[in-house]
Design a protein that fits this description.
Layout lengths: L2 H5 L3 H17 L7 H21 L5 H22 L4 H31 L7 H28 L8 H18 L1 H4 L10 H76 L3 H14 L11 H16 L3 E6 L9 H19 L9 E8 L3 E9 L6 E2 L2 E2 L11 H12 L3 E7 L2 E9 L4
Parallel strand pairs: 1-2
Antiparallel strand pairs: 2-3, 3-7, 4-5, 6-7
Helix pairs in contact: 2-3, 2-4, 2-5, 2-6, 3-4, 4-5, 5-6, 5-7, 5-9, 7-9, 9-10, 9-11, 9-12, 9-13, 11-12, 12-13
């Protein structure tokens, strides 16, 4: 084995390693296409990588970086087209894939080199491919297992520009240090001995993988804490809103009844049709402030009354058919949070409609065969995209939005229920199904 052959890891080692690392990401995340199309794209990616890296194997130093950038672009395209990722998310996972592939290829070639030089193993393709299959099987089997384990407790990870830039900096530093000896033999961290070069490259790539994994876990933990705190704050906020609404409604109702009696006295003493017409109009206008919702559940009544008054002021038509007694097994805080979030989301959606006659919301609460069925629908003209069963927000700071529906999901899951979200023929619908516990 010649010295140049020893130093330069074959291009197909890297091609297969990059492809396997990307395949793990594709297989453990939500698909953008059906499986046949996804695996066809991955097959094309493997062929392109093999051809490109074979043709550019041993390329001159000044072409090395441009060639690696081409490889990264190929990986990015394959991940982005197969997974339901944003471009930032695809870039983030592409960076992790790149370093994983670098480490696997480096370790596989180092083990083969050690076997040939020190264990006096014969150099042939069978031995070489045996080492490659064993090393890749162990590394990528472990990585696949770890990714699948993370997906069991699935937590949608928000990847923004800051997170993407961070991993790019980490990957750039790791790649630069691990390839220092190949680009310049006279550098302070370079070596001219193959064994040392392999050790430096392998250990640096392994350290890079560890840093990226630690950063990934830290992000997940921080975002999970943030989500838990946010959902708890939403729950408490909706309950406080219910308590304030209940107090306000009682005061308003008391004032309404006093005013209603005063108007009745004025009408009895009124003289003339104009005075009578004015009092009738006045009585009609204040009638909206009487609590009309009598569902059988005081919490739902308070939430509905509060939202009805708001909708009236915004020219929104809110209709409701609800059996409040069916909610008796739920806690007050959960009822206020569930219906508060359902109606807040619907109101926020229809408020964006310019035509007031299209501002329509309907709520229904009923029981059917030991199940509580809740449905909220509102007219919607937006073209929504869905991810993980929830609509993707069009707002810029997406990490701070969508918690209303997540809170709804958590409340339903607390009682063993499920949530379905759909948009058909300009009607956005949220359906909740919760089993009613037996007494």
């Amino acid at each position: 084995m010649k010295i140049l052959e020893v130093i330069n890891t074959p291009g197909y080692y890297y091609s297969i390693a990059y492809w396997l690392a990307a395949l793990i990401v594709v297989c453990t995340n939500k698909d953008r296409f059906e499986k046949k199309k996804k695996f066809f794209i991955q097959g094309v990616c493997l062929v392109v990588l093999l051809i490109f890296m074979t043709l550019t194997d041993g390329v001159r130093q000044w072409l090395f970086i441009p060639c690696m950038l081409v490889v990264i672009v190929i990986l990015l395209i394959s991940i982005y087209t197969c997974c339901e990722f944003t471009l930032s998310e695809a870039g983030y996972y592409c960076a992790r894939v790149f370093i994983s592939g670098e480490f696997a290829a480096s370790l596989a070639w180092q083990m083969y080199y050690y076997a040939v030089r020190h264990l006096k193993v014969r150099t042939n393709k069978f031995i070489e491919w045996s080492f490659l299959l064993i090393v890749y099987g162990i590394i990528f089997g472990f990585l696949y297992f770890k990714e699948r384990t993370l997906q069991k407790d699935f937590q949608e990870l928000y990847i923004g520009k800051r997170e993407l830039i961070t991993v790019i900096i980490i990957v750039s530093a790791v790649f630069a240090v691990s390839n220092m000896s190949y680009l310049s033999k006279s550098g302070p961290f370079s070596s001219t001995f193959p064994t040392e070069m392999f050790i430096i490259r392998t250990l640096v790539d392994l350290s890079g993988m560890a840093v990226l994994y630690a950063y990934h876990m830290q992000m997940r933990e921080l975002q999970m804490r943030f989500e838990v705190d946010t959902l708890q704050n939403i729950l408490q906020m909706q309950y406080k809103n219910y308590q304030l609404s209940q107090e306000s409604i009682e005061i308003v109702n008391q004032k309404y009844h006093d005013l209603k009696h005063q108007i009745a006295l004025l009408k009895a003493e009124a003289d003339g049709s104009k005075a009578m017409a004015y009092l009738d109009k006045m009585e009609k206008e204040i009638k909206i402030y009487e609590a009309q919702n009598k569902t059988g559940n005081k919490v739902l009544d308070a939430v509905l009354t509060s939202k009805t008054l708001y909708c009236h002021n915004k020219n929104i038509s809110l209709t409701c058919v609800a059996d409040g007694l069916a909610l008796s097994f739920m806690e007050d805080m959960d009822i206020s949070a569930l219906f508060g979030n359902l109606l807040d989301n619907a109101v926020e959606s229809v408020e964006r409609l310019k035509e007031e006659e299209k501002r329509l919301i309907h709520l229904s609460v009923a029981t059917q065969k030991r199940f509580l069925r809740i449905r909220v629908e509102n007219y919607c003209e937006e073209k929504l995209a869905f991810k993980n069963g929830l609509p993707v927000t069009t707002k810029k700071e997406i990490q701070f939005h969508g918690y209303g529906l997540k809170s709804i999901q958590n409340t339903a899951k607390k009682y063993g229920g499920s949530v379905a979200v759909d948009l058909q023929k300009n009607w956005f619908e949220v359906r909740i199904l919760i089993p009613i516990p037996r007494d």
